Amino acid sequence: MNNRSQFNIEGNIRIMKGDELFIGPKQYQLFKQIIKDGSLNAASQNLKISYQHAWNLLNKMNHISPLPLIISYKGGNDGGGCRVTNFGLQVIQLIEEKESQMNKFLNNINQDFNLCSF
Amino acid sequence: MNNRSQFNIEGNIRIMKGDELFIGPKQYQLFKQIIKDGSLNAASQNLKISYQHAWNLLNKMNHISPLPLIISYKGGNDGGGCRVTNFGLQVIQLIEEKESQMNKFLNNINQDFNLCSF
């Protein structure tokens, strides 16, 4: 058993469509990596996930989305290319706003959180 | 691609000790089930996880905790028994308070959340 030391509350948010996950931390991370790398192949390599897994995540996001988020095409030397849509960029911005609100909330609830005060 | 329908933000919190997970949704669920069932064996069966996995989760929680949460013993016909400590009950209560604050926060951020307003 450890003695007193720093405990704190972390958290994350995810966007659902009904019971179905639309964008959670994993999808968000992939999205950002695609924006950075410009290709699904490079993004999957940098995230150390398989191309197929990244493709499936992306495909599912696009399917659930009311408008396409990222337009991708298979083939070519780099294994495919990607273009993020304006709607995709707006969704990312919205998520980051909500994340920022979440972080403020977490800071607040951590202020009076002390596991060792009992 | 689906047409407009209900999107909403969900979230969860977890208590960390530094970089180490202390209690997240899975641990919380096990904890509650143990309180309900009074034994780790029954709890693991009801959660459809292996006894060994439940034992490992519990053991790790107790190890990270500044005081024991659940005192368990192996053996006996039912595969072992459990006693939740007062500290364990207080931790659960604290988590539920924070969860309740989290739910209020999520309600607030969902008020002005509309993915289809772009």
Biggest interface, chains and residue tallies:
A-B, 40 and 40 residues
Return Rg of chain A in Å: 18 Å
Tell me which oligomeric state these chains represent: homodimer
Total helical elements of chain A: 4
Q: Please state the second-level CATH architecture of the domain at 24-102 in chain A.
A: Orthogonal Bundle
**SSE string of chain A, helix = H, strand = E?**
EEHHHEEH
> How much strand content do the residues of chain A show?
15-25%
Percentage of residues in helical conformation of chain A? 40-55%
CATH fold-level assignment of the domain at 24-102 in chain A: Arc Repressor Mutant, subunit A
Provide the structure class of chain A.
alpha+beta
- Ends apart, CA distance between termini of chain A: 16 Å
Total number of strands of chain A: 4
Strand numbers in spatial order across the main sheet of chain A: 1-2
What is the CATH top level name of the domain at 24-102 in chain A?
Answer: Mainly Alpha
Give the full name of the CATH homologous superfamily of the domain at 24-102 in chain A: Winged helix-like DNA-binding domain superfamily/Winged helix DNA-binding domain
Largest sheet of chain A: 2 strands, antiparallel
**What best-fitting shape of chain A do the alpha-carbon axes yield?**
elongated
Low-confidence stretches of chain A: none
Summarize the structure.
The first copy, chain A, has helices at 25-37, 40-46, 51-64, 86-111, and strands at residues 7-17, 20-23, 70-73, 81-84.
Describe what this molecule looks like in 3D:
- Chain A is α+β, with helices and mostly antiparallel strands and 118 residues long.
- The first copy, chain A, has a domain at 24-102: Arc Repressor Mutant, subunit A.
- Chain A is 51% helix and 19% strand.
- The first copy, chain A, has 4 helices and 4 strands, in the order E-E-H-H-H-E-E-H.
- Chain A has helices at residues 25-37, 40-46, 51-64, 86-111, and strands spanning 7-17, 20-23, 70-73, 81-84.
- Chain A has a two-stranded antiparallel ribbon with strand order 1-2. In chain A, strands 3-4 form a two-stranded antiparallel sheet.
- In chain A, strand 1 (7-17) and strand 2 (20-23) form a beta hairpin.
- In chain A, helix 2 (40-46) packs across helix 3.
- The longest helix of chain A is centred in the C-terminal third of the chain and has 26 residues, at 86-111.
- Chain A starts with 6 loop residues before the first strand and ends in a 7-residue tail after the last helix.
- The mean pLDDT of chain A is 86.
- Chain A binds chain B through residues 1-18, 22, 62-68, 87, 90-91, 94, 98, 101-102, 105-106, 109, 113, 115-116, 118, and chain B through 1-18, 22, 62-68, 87, 90-91, 94, 98, 101-102, 105-106, 109, 113, 115-116, 118.
